[in-house]
Amino acid sequence: MTVLAAIGATALWLLYAWLASAIAASWLSARKGFGEKPGLASGLLLSALGVVVWLLWPAKPDSAWKREGPIPRRRRGEPERAERAEPERAEPDS
Fold first, then answer.
1. Which of 1, 50, 64, 78 is the most exposed place for a label (fewest CB within 10 A)?
2. What is the tens place of the pLDDT at every residue in 48-68?
3. Cα-trace Rg, the chain
């Protein structure tokens, strides 16, 4: 009976690793501009290899990965990027 309990604990840890890799691959693919679904699918099918694939896959030019870098900064109390943009300049009266 103890052997079955040991297998159950190992299976639980393998399940956690599988789900964590699916979450990580989904987050990486979304940051690289491809959406969450391709990353989720590759993370579920390839497990930890899916994370490696998305780390090596090139990001789209307009993605958050290119704009903000690989790891986004946490901003507290700062306005959003659209609100921080410079206000439109009025044309001088001539």
1. 1
2. 999 999 999 999 999 999 998
3. 21
- DSSP secondary structure letters along 5-51: HHHHHHHHHHHHHHHHHHHHHHHHHHHTTS-HHHHHHHHHHHTHHHH
| Helix-helix angle 36-46:2-31, to 10 degrees | 150
User: Which candidate, 91, 19, 27, places its Cα nearest to that of 65?
Assistant: 27
The owner of tokens 């956690």 is 16
| Amino acid letter, 21 | S
Cα–Cα dist 8/1, whole Å? 11
pTM: predicted TM-score of the whole model, two decimal places: 0.70
Dihedral sign of CA atoms 59, 34, 51, 67 in order:
positive
**CA separation for the pair 21, 16 (Å, rounded):** 9
Q: Record the tokens describing residue 10, joined without a space.
A: 């190992």
